[in-house]
Specification:
About 50% of the residues lie in helices and about 20% in strands. It is α+β, with helices and mostly antiparallel strands. Helix 5 (about 140-150) packs across helix 9 (about 235-260) and helix 7 (about 175-195) packs across helix 8 (about 205-215).
């Protein structure tokens, strides 16, 4: 079964890892170019992408063996990073957490989910479910978890299908502003049902983007905390799972409409899928299934936005 592991590396660790992989991987390793990545490679049953932000994502059927062989020291560092993130996000009162999915995917919607929870029984229930950052869980495992979360906790989801996303982009060509609108709307709706709850949001931009929108919406918020790796907080982890599952559902609807296999992310396989979609239905079909401002659109011969 495919597994995903996520690590956080320093610049020095990224450089050391790339050097170790280039020296230790077999000659048939497939080194690839991925948007926003320092390096990416497929080898030994695992696919690894190291982003310039320091995020290292490893996926595949043999991730455990790959990690044991090449990532032992980094796994310890990642565990310390995760523990530090959890320690700075106390769950001491009613809290609403929010996270997004689809931001880096050419195909499919942009989704934001917000989840309300309380310490004590609520936190224990999320822990019992195995809630964690969605990037560390397989889609197969997340679908039943998302269903349980939405049944047991108060949730709000905001989704921009590609056609709506492209329309919004024309008037507001800034993905952080679009995200802020979706986060603020979901958070404000929950705040009206749970006034004064604290807010924890996975950082995607300036905290003022959400604070200003909440003020305009007259949402009665408690403290607002917007930090990287906020998925370490149980309710943000829950929100990340709900958002991911809704994204996958929307992505599958796009595949059905396109009539061809699509790909997640924005790398080379996405370019091939984009060319197929354009050949099938031209620009009108592409705008219904893809976020057209991505550079992938510029690599489609004959496409005019």
């Amino acid at each position: 079964m495919s597994e995903t592991r996520v690590y956080t590396l320093s610049p020095a660790e990224m450089a050391a890892l790339e050097q170790a992989l280039r020296a230790g991987l077999p000659g048939n390793a497939e080194w690839r170019s991925v948007d926003h990545a320092l390096f990416a490679v497929k080898a030994l049953g695992a696919s690894l992408v190291c982003y310039r932000s320091g995020k290292l994502v490893v996926q595949g059927n043999d991730v455990a063996d790959f990690a044991t062989r090449f990532l032992g020291g980094f796994a310890t560092a990642a565990a310390k990073t995760a523990a530090a993130a959890a320690a700075r996000l106390p769950f001491t009162g009613p809290t609403i957490g929010s996270d997004e999915a689809g931001k880096g995917d050419y195909f499919g919607p942009l989704v934001v989910a917000a989840v309300f929870g309380e310490p004590g029984e609520g936190a224990a229930e999320l822990q019992a479910m195995g809630v964690a950052d969605s990037k560390t869980l397989s889609d197969l495992r997340m679908f039943p978890m998302a269903e349980r979360i939405e049944r047991a906790f108060d949730c709000e989801v905001r989704e921009l299908a590609p056609a709506d996303y492209n329309d919004r982009w024309k008037s507001e060509p800034n993905v952080n502003h679009l995200l802020a609108d979706l986060h603020a709307d979901a958070l404000a709706t929950l705040l009206r049902r749970h006034p004064g709850a604290n807010l924890v949001v996975d950082r995607f931009g300036d905290e003022k983007l959400i604070a200003a929108r909440l003020q305009r919406l007259q949402a009665p918020a408690g403290d607002l905390l917007m930090v990287p790796q906020a998925e370490a907080h149980p309710v943000v982890g829950a929100a990340s799972i709900v958002a991911r599952v809704r994204f996958v559902e929307g992505y599958r609807r796009c595949e059905e409409e396109a009539g061809t296999e699509l790909h997640k992310g924005a790398g080379e396989p996405v370019d091939a899928a984009a060319r197929r979609v354009f050949a099938i239905g031209g620009a009108p079909l592409l705008r219904r299934v893809a976020k057209l401002h991505f550079k992938n659109s510029q690599r489609i011969p004959g496409f005019q936005p």
